Amino acid sequence: MSQARAELKITGHVQGVTYRASTRRQAQERGLYGWVENQPDGSVEAVVEGSKDAIEGLVEWAHTGPKRARVESVEVDWTEPTGEFSRFKVHR
Question: Which of 38, 68, 70, 87 is catalytic?
Answer without folding.
Answer: 38
